[in-house]
Amino acid sequence: MAGFKKLIFIQLLSWLLFASVGGYFVASAFDNAVSDEQYKTQSVVNNYISQHSIAEITPDKLQQVLADGNTFSSFILRDQQGKELINIQSPTSLPVVAQLVDTSFNSIRPQFAVNQASDIKVEFTINANNLGLILQQALFVVILVSGLVAIIPIVFMKTMFSKLNRNISMTVAEVIDIYINENQLNNGLETAINNNKIKQLGVDLVPSFNRLSHFLQSKHDDIQNAAQSIKQEAYKDVVTELGNRNMFVEYYEKYIESSEKSTFGSLAMVRCSELQAINQTRGYQKGDEYVKAVADIIKHISGTYTGSKVFRLNSSDFAIVLPNTPLKESERFGDNLQSRFTQYQQTQELSSVANTGIVAYEKGKPLGELLSVVDNAMSMAQSKQANAWHIQRETDLVNNVSAGFGNQNWRKVINEVIEAERVHLVMQNIMPIGKSMKAYAEIQVRFKTTENQVLPTASFLAMAEKLDMAMEIDQLIINSSLEKIKSRNFSEKFFGLNVTASSAHNDQFVIWLERRLLKDTNIASKLVFEVSEFGLQQNIKASKRFIDMIHRVGARITVERFGVGLTSFKFFRDLKPDFIKMDASYTRGLEEDKNNQYFMRLMVDLAHRIGVSVFAEGVESQEEKHIIETLCLDGVQGYYIEKPKDI
């Protein structure tokens, strides 16, 4: 574009130069023509007057001849004494250009002539109007011709440049199309161009496109690597550094469900059965340590299987893929896991660690269907014993077509526990802070199978809730606790009993509990019923009826796991609990978390204003206990204070 502008400038400059030179030569020609005309006219006048005397010239006739002004613009005839005999003035304006030339060259000048007798003197100026018109026309032709000579190349070059640009654009576009369609590099791209009509123009572009291809490929590789790194970080579990559920889904869909080659193996799901209990009683930090220990055991056992992959699906579940491993071989995997989990259970004083469900997979099997089957296997494993595993085979599914096969087994286990009253009670004291403060011991329960194996408590209670059997379990726990208290004659000690929100909101259960407590009024006054804050909030009206009944029989209420929901001051005013137990998440790292300290102090102030005592649970260190004492709480509970022990 810059070259084209330069061409226009040069052409215009050339036009001006050519027009100037041409104009100069035309002006010079006009000057010469005027001089020749003056010379000829003077010669004619000289010849005429030299042959006549003044007496022979008739002024009237001469004036009549010269009056038209075509020959002279001025003509003056004088006698010997200088007297004017004839004075003819026929001035005619020259064209503008001729006037400019005449002014510059002084071409038209007065002429003089005298006869031989010296009695005739003539002074005249020729009429150069015709010559001026010729001059102007010639100058116009010069300017026009020079302008055409200058403009035509510009128009031609512009057309040529436009066509050339269009050809180049089309050539580049076609080469790009070939590059995209053929996706060829180096000689491959050159061969594709040679077979095309754009060979002449496009072949020179091949090296540049090859360089562009390599550049784009390198950038593509860099972007893919960066994206993969970002994905790895985004898909990584923070606690265990294993891939999360998203990575598991992507792996399964890519390498199993949509695999081009035939593939088979075993999929195991491991569930941390005590995570919820540990988070509530020992704190979330201990819960993370527990999860990480389970993950380490899984990685160690699965590491002996070629190509195995481990993922953390959610807070409590792990998925293990064992490629090319038949179910028979996966039995050994389940045994090894159970053995290691049992060892860890003994060192950490847990009722259980984790259960394992195992199923077979093959190419093309949808992930959703497989997860449903392995969840069934997990339910079966949880209903057996601590750290148990269970393999779900296709034949099992054929013989038990119900989708709730695992639920049916759980229902059977729960019914057996209720009928045989296979519960084991332990208690964990809440240590009061301050001499005048009274606290109580929370009764906790462990459930056992027919083989006297401890079932995962959290899983058992969750399944009882799911199968609408929570009320029967609550009744079993309450009856067992009251009988234990009476048999041990704990007349001066206060005990806390957990009740599910679904039972507390059930009118039938409330009526039963009131009648049961009225039978042992002396014990009822020593009981504190614990219900979660979240559960109470689900039905405020039903919660109020339950709490009012508890207060009528002389017992008291604790709102446990407080701070997880969105409690308002109106919540306390309407329900009037006796105690609140702060959720263990507020105790975790309390010595460093100023926000939690501020929140707990605010809750303590509000609670004390309306006569509610505040406890902290999940206390695991001396530092946490010290901070809680400075915040003026009324009691502390946790493994640092006391571990659960038999009643």
UniProtKB/TrEMBL annotation:
The portions of this protein that span the membrane are 134-156
Keywords of the record: Membrane, Transmembrane, Transmembrane helix
Signal sequence segment: none
State the Gene3D superfamilies in the record: 3.30.70.270, EAL domain (3.20.20.450)
Which Gene Ontology MF annotations are present? Answer: cyclic-guanylate-specific phosphodiesterase activity
Chain ranges of the GGDEF domain: 263-394
Where does the record place the EAL domain? 407-647
Q: Say yes or no: keyword DNA damage present.
A: no
What is the protein's name according to its record? GGDEF domain-containing protein
